[in-house]
Amino acid sequence: MTVYPEEEVRAAAERLIEHHSKASEVTDWTFYVDETYTEDAVYLCEYAGVRPVTAVGRKQIKETHYGEDMGGFEDWTFPYDGYAVNGNRIITHWWNRGPGKRPDGSFYQTPGVSFITYAGNGMFSHQHDFFDLAHQMKLCDDLEEAGLLNARLKEIWVKPMKAKLVEMLTSNMD
């Protein structure tokens, strides 16, 4: 396996961060997929094991992670706190940041992390996202109490995820 120069890998990571920033602004998460992921890229998100999503190829990445899974998150942003590079691997730290701010001025947010593999030519061949789904559900409760939770997000994402979490956590309790 070719190990690419660190400067090249960092440049690709910076470009991804820029794309995500723009995607949050324009609420279009698909415009950069063709120039950012290899044709056969694999993108996974576990969602705490209750609804794992694996996309293989650009089309599926557009349809799932940057399509269906972003429904209801139109008023959210996903800023990066930093990243680290080790060979062709990138680890990013980002935030699931909901709309508005808490009464104390802090953001409604939960942390996330991605493990990304750089494949050369400015493209990524693998991405695996992680965040604490229970913490995310609590954040959505806080947003709802503040009158800031998107109704569509609640129906298509929060309620189903909570139900699946409860089912998973209460199974085999005997």
What is the topology, as strand order, of the major beta sheet? 2-1-6-5-4-3
Distance between the termini: 48 Å
Helix-strand topology string: HHEEHEEEEHH
Instruction: Give the biggest sheet.
Output: 6 strands, mixed
Regions with little confidence, pLDDT below 50 for 5+ residues = none
Proportion of residues in helical segments? 25-40%
List descriptors.
174 residues, alpha+beta, Nuclear Transport Factor 2, Chain: A, 6-stranded mixed sheet
Brief characterization of the structure:
The protein is of the alpha+beta class and 174 residues long. Helix content is 37%, strand content 32%. The relative contact order is 0.17.
How would you characterize this protein structure?
By secondary structure, the protein is an alpha+beta fold. It has one domain (6-169): Nuclear Transport Factor 2, Chain: A, CATH 3.10.450.50. Helices cover 37% and strands 32% of the residues. It has five helices and six strands.
Q: How is the topology of this model organized?
A:
Elements: H1 6-26, H2 33-36, E1 37-45, E2 53-56, H3 58-63, E3 80-86, E4 89-101, E5 107-120, E6 123-131, H4 133-145, H5 151-170
Parallel strand pairs: 1-6
Antiparallel strand pairs: 1-2, 3-4, 4-5, 5-6
